[in-house]
Amino acid sequence: MLEGLIVLERSGAPLPEQIYRAIGDAARAGRLREGVVLPSSRQMAAGLGISRNSVNAAYELLRADGVIAVRAGAAPQIVARAKLEAAHIEGAGDGLGLSKRGEALARDLRKWTGGRNGGQLEPGAPDEALFPADLWARCLRRVARQKFGPAANYDQVEGLPRLKVALADHLTRHRGVSATADQVIIVPSIQAGLSLVTNCLTDPGDAGFVESPGYFGARTAFAGAQLVTRALEVDDQGANPSALAGSAARLVYVTPSHHYPTGARMNLQRRMDLLDAARREGAIVLEDDYDSEFMWQGRAIAALQGISRGGEVIYLGTTAKSLLPGLRLAYMVVPEDLAVPLRQAQRNLGLRVNIHAQAAYAELIESGALVTHLRRIARTYEERGRLLVQTLRARLGDAIEIAMPMGGLQTVMGLADGTDDAKIAARLAKEGFETPALSSYCAGVKRTGLVVGFADATEKRVGRFADLLEGLIV
Ligand SMILES: Cc1ncc(COP(=O)(O)O)c(C=O)c1O
After folding, report:
1. What's the confidence (pLDDT) of residue 444?
2. Which residue from 141, 51, 125 is spatially nearest to 359, judged by alpha carbons?
3. What angle do CA 134, 135, 137 make, to 5 degrees?
4. 227: alpha, beta or left, given left = phi > 0 and alpha = psi -120 to 50?
């Protein structure tokens, strides 16, 4: 069935990319029709005389692009052509003269959820009303009068020394990170940091692992750098690192302290196994600690970076959850030997943050006001999370599975296997709810459910959401 379709050039592009392109192009052109079952990775690898890893990596890319569907225990199947065309147009910008790199950078994985940004109960979006506006205004007023010397011009692009010192201390005390100020780099967002690091540490065709289900931003950064993205399956103990063995991966992205979006916490054994496996493969672990500063159930578990030997973890944090995404203020703690080249690359890419915002944030940290603010929002978000979970449990009973998260701004509402969660998410999106399908977050085995935010949960809103769900799933 695939005879003549895949002709590998040994000296051409990486093998996974060649397979990916051959099957993707054939599916889009209709030469491989909807429902066609592809050979298992073992069969295809034997047929082409290549390693199974290369085929798995190609299947992974095809799955992430929506070209094939992969269900546990079943062979991959070509997806409907109409769906493919939609995904392709949204992603690539064909015919606009984009380079391959440009196409990869312009992909919009988020759109595949069928939702739209800015809807109600959107996961990961904080409540703007909880932003400490008066406090921030006072800090900004003070710092706007200060003189910054070199940082006011083209120096200290990687961050104000004052903020780097304050963050190294704050993260050491509150997140168990092991950092000196020299290891801190201030960036506009975790997304910018992921993109910077991915581009600096990999070449197109290299392998990178993301969690499944997992955060779109990481998949986007990897896709933008033309990595072959593979999946680490996540269960209730967090990401399982066993797939790393023998993968020669360059990067592994994880959210170990509070998995996005399920909320699982990676246990200590898994953490040690992950660090060992990364060391063996020569991979760097990207630890995204996006919302662990305001966990409410017990103390947040210390960062993975703190138990590593220092060379294999890049830690990323952000103010996008604790303050506002629009502030554009995030940070990385990088291994000592990478600090200088990453700083230079940051300067070359122009990923610098406004000095007044940096200084105001340093004031918040130094004065202790940040910690007070974090405690306050943790209490509020806990109440809203409880409202959501209790209401949905009471209204939908056994039709759903939902647990009270340990912190953060979102949770997962599991649905019965076989439910078309994308269809339900699309129907809810029409009613103004941005609660994407869990299956669209899965780079590996599909799981069914909705990812539901609660930062803006009110009784009325959650009640209307439950009314709609009753009509859709019960
Ligand atoms: C897991 C995770 N990391 C990072 C971010 C965003 O951080 P930033 O805005 O700094 O890129 C989000 C936002 O939803 C997220 O869910």
Report:
1. 80
2. 141
3. 65
4. beta
C-alpha 378 – ligand 1 centre gap (Å): 17
- The average pLDDT across 383-411 equals 95
Q: How far is CA 279 from CA 244, 254, 282, in A?
A: 10, 15, 5
What CA–CA distance (Å, rounded) separates 53 from 158? 38
Residue 172 CA to residue 210 CA, distance in Å, equals 26
Confidence (pLDDT) at 88: 46
| Probe target for ligand 1 pocket from 288, 361, 409, with the most ligand atoms within 8 Å of CB | 288
Residues at CB less than 6 angstroms from ligand 1: 124, 189-191, 215, 217, 255, 260, 288, 290, 318, 320, 325, 330
CA distance 262 to 118: 21
Residue with CA at minimum distance from ligand 1 atom 14 = 124
The whole-angstrom separation of Cα 237 and Cα 4 is 44
Q: What token pair was written down for 383?
A: 């109440």
pLDDT tops 60 at residue 93: no
pLDDT tier at 233, thresholds 50, 70, 90? very high
Residue 350 above 80 pLDDT? yes
β-bridge mates for residue 234, sequence order? 239
DSSP class per residue in 247-289? ---SEEEE--SS-TTT-----HHHHHHHHHHHHHHTPEEEEE-
pLDDT at 111 over 80: no
pTM over 0.85, yes/no: no
Q: Are 474 and 413 in contact (CB under 8 A)?
A: no
Look up residue 19 and give its two tokens. Answer: 């397979």
Determine the average pLDDT of the residues in 254-263. 96
CA–centroid distance, residue 172 to ligand 1 (Å) = 21
Q: Which domains does the chain have, with CATH numbers?
A: 15-107 (1.10.10.10), 130-367 (3.40.640.10), 380-473 (3.90.1150.10)
pLDDT digits (tens, 9 = 90+) for 420-473: 999 999 999 999 999 999 999 998 888 999 999 999 999 999 999 999 999 999
Task: Locate 84 and state its tokens.
Answer: 């493919």
More confident residue, 12 or 332: 332
Which one-letter DSSP state was computed for residue 190?
H
